[in-house]
Design goal:
heterodimer; A: alpha/beta; Rossmann fold; Alpha-Beta Plaits; 11 helices; 34% helix; 25% strand; elongated; B: mainly alpha; 10 helices; 0% strand
Chain lengths: 316, 293
């Protein structure tokens, strides 16, 4: 279990993490989601005692990280795939980590086998692809057979087979009763792995909810309708008491409508339909809506700004 | 550890049996079959020893060091032996010709010292290291112990070998006394290893290999070079001090080959190096605790 309490990190004027309070529970995969620059990595570094919090507290099973006497048996962490010396072989990289925590040498062979790197154990890490580096990092995380696992963007650079492997790995680790905390900026990835979600934006907590609740709350279902007789269709739908939203491309969107019902209505009134399709807003959209306010590095769209320059600086 | 679980990460994934997320209250948590060992400095030292022996830069810097010390030493010995006759060397002992190799070789030790700490920042390894051992002071202490031992042993073997060969080769020179032997082998090795330890501390403070190496080469050579070009007589005192306390001159003290008659003598250079290294290493410890990794 990991407990964050009012965790704050300031770099000069800039607040990277702002009063974050949440609990990461064992037995489930907790997704840590946020756009780039939201403070995910900073939070994880503070959890691991790498960065000192400006305020607040992190406790690992009730203890501070730097008070753990054999940390690798408590927490295994994959921070980034580059956290190793390129000139050292995979085996020696893991061996020096194992030795620092009194973990037997045989365990190094075991984890190399688990991540499928036994064949390249004697090869230097700098010759590894991004995916192999990621696997070596995961091997390091598994080394102490820890109760808590923390992965920062683990699927980065992995091929589909590797992504599938790590998803199953995380789920099986959680099923063994371990705490699994995984960060990502991809909602779609989290939807497949995480049971619980912690969403942050600009360092602040935006949501702390179960995945099922998040899906229920945020996935809008609607029916998309297109017809050459748009005006008459609108009248018919209004007549039936159905609220319609006009979509940008001339189509109509009916919230919470049943496609069958709309189709029957149209047939009754002899209306031609070119499209009648039930839709579900993607979780990615829901995530983007949730974090839209807090995305730090926007790509500029072509549309001219509606507000005068600088108007968005004042927060409501 | 009363109920060790046979499950390991590669065991059959239990989640397949129960598809879909489960929000049931979490279990008691996972207990690993790996025994819990309270870690101490010994573990960190073992880890740092694996690190230092498993990268090529160690082999390169130490290889070049041995080559310079032994190669230049033997060359100097051969030249002196062939071009001097009885009495030319006066009061000099044969040991003093080991100086040239050690002076150049010390740059390799400086480089290795810096790399021991700074290279971890360059590669990102430092985060992995500090996660594995959150006691930052212990990491730096282990690095210092391992590096100092390696640097001292390698210098002692190289310098000792050269000294023995020189004394055997140059029978025209005066026989060295016991203390002279000690200074030219153990003394100079301790001094060079301390110089390396200073570099290790500077590397930990600067966190950048090239920057820290440049600083240390500057510390090694700049005072002497600057002093050479101080012609003004009003700077005479400063010039003298720079000469006396420049590292090459202090190295020379171990070989009784000092540039000036005053200034550090005997074992003084060792105490000076010890003091400076202690202060800088202390600063490195303090900064390591204070800064983010």
């Amino acid at each position: 279990m990991i407990e964050l309490e009012g965790l704050t990190k300031r770099y000069g004027e800039k607040v990277a993490v702002d009063g974050l309070t949440c609990t990461v529970r064992p037995g489930i995969v907790t997704g840590f989601l946020g756009p780039n620059g939201a403070g995910k990595s900073t939070t994880m570094r503070m959890m691991l005692g790498l960065d000192r919090p400006s305020a607040g507290d992190v406790r690992i099973d009730g203890q501070h990280y730097d008070r753990l006497r054999d940390p690798l048996k408590y927490i295994g962490a994959l921070l980034d795939a580059k956290g190793m010396h390129g000139g050292r072989s995979a085996f020696n990289h893991l061996l020096c980590l194992a030795q620092s925590n009194g973990i037997p040498r045989s365990r190094v062979h075991e984890v190399l086998d688990t991540v499928g790197l036994t064949g390249v154990a004697k090869k230097k890490a700098k010759g590894f692809s991004l995916g192999m580096g990621q696997r070596l990092g995961i091997a390091g995380a598994l080394l102490g057979d820890p109760r808590i696992l923390m992965f920062d963007e683990p699927v980065n650079g992995l091929d589909p087979e590797g992504i599938h492997w790590i998803r199953n790995l995380m789920k099986s680790l959680a099923a063994q009763g371990r705490t699994v905390f995984v960060s990502s900026h991809l909602m779609s990835e989290m939807a497949l792995t995480a049971d619980h979600l912690v969403v942050i934006g600009q360092g602040r907590l935006l949501a702390d909810t179960s995945m099922a609740d998040f899906i229920a709350q945020n996935s809008r279902t609607y029916v998309r309708v297109r017809s050459p007789q748009r005006e008459r269709l609108l009248d018919v739908l209004h007549g039936a008491g159905i609220t319609v939203v006009a979509a940008g491309d001339g189509a109509l969107e009916v919230d919470d409508g049943k496609a069958e019902h709309i189709g029957e209505l149209a047939a009754e009134h002899h209306l031609v339909l070119h499209e009648l399709s039930p839709q579900q807003a993607s979780l990615e959209e829901a995530f983007m809506q949730l974090t839209a306010e807090s995305v730090e590095y926007h790509a500029h769209t072509d549309a001219p700004p509606e507000q005068p320059w600088g108007a968005g600086w004042t927060r409501s | 550890m009363s109920t060790p679980q046979p499950q390991s990460p590669q065991a059959a994934p239990a989640w397949q049996a129960a598809p879909g997320p489960s929000y049931a209250p979490a279990g008691p948590g996972y207990t690993s079959p790996i025994p819990i060992v309270p870690t101490h400095l010994g573990h960190a030292v073992a880890s740092e020893w694996t690190k230092i022996r498993s990268v090529r830069s160690t082999m390169w810097t130490l290889g070049v060091f041995v080559l310079l010390v032994v190669g230049i030493g033997l060359l100097a010995g051969a030249v002196v032996s062939s071009s001097t006759s009885e009495g030319d060397l006066g009061d000099q002992t044969a040991l003093s010709f080991g100086f040239f190799g050690i002076l150049l070789g010390s740059m390799c030790i400086i480089t290795l010292g810096v790399l021991t700490t700074a290279s971890e920042y360059g590669t990102g390894m430092i985060r992995t290291t500090m996660v594995a051992c959150p006691s930052r002071g212990r990491v730096l202490a282990a690095k210092a112990v391992v590096f100092f031992a390696v640097a001292f042993v390698v210098t002692l073997l190289s310098a000792g070998f050269v000294a023995v060969v020189h004394v055997g080769m140059l029978d025209q020179a005066r026989r060295p006394t016991g203390e002279e032997w000690l200074k030219a082998t153990v003394g100079v090795s301790l001094y060079v290893a301390l110089l390396g330890l200073l570099s290790l501390a500077v590397g930990s403070i600067i966190r950048h290999s090239a920057g820290a190496i440049t600083i240390m080469i500057g510390v090694l050579l700049a005072p002497l070079v600057i002093a050479i070009f101080m012609f003004s007589s009003s700077l005479e005192k400063l010039r003298e001090a720079l000469f006396q306390y420049s590292i090459p001159n202090q190295l020379g003290v171990f070989y009784a080959a000092s540039l000036s008659e005053s200034g550090p003598s005997g074992w003084d250079p060792l105490w000076i190096a010890l003091g400076v290294t202690a202060v800088v290493l202390g600063a490195a410890f303090a900064l390591l605790e204070k800064r983010d990794v």
